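Backbone-to-sequence.
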């Protein structure tokens, strides 16, 4: 018999998750949405102008990429699950 001694922790608060306990898997994707509208002022810009603006922003490649697509998957304890669900529902 193989015994898994891996200690699982909540990805949000770090609390130890009990095997067989109230544990939850969060899977969330946030992606940019194209609404069909193109701002002609933005479309007609010179590529060098766009590159300059990107460089001046100070954002890393990862930060720029996450503005377009962000995905997170983690395990949660009961309390963190409750807080996240309340936030997503718009409750204080």
């Amino acid at each position: 018999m193989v015994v898994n001694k891996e200690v699982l922790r909540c990805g949000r608060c770090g609390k130890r998750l009990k095997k067989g306990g109230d544990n939850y898997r969060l899977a969330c994707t946030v992606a940019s949405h194209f609404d069909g509208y193109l701002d002609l002022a933005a479309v007609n810009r010179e590529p060098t102008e766009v590159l300059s603006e990107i460089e001046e922003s100070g954002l890393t490649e990862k930060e720029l990429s996450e503005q377009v697509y962000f995905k997170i998957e983690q395990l949660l304890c009961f309390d963190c699950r409750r807080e996240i669900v309340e936030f997503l529902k718009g409750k204080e």
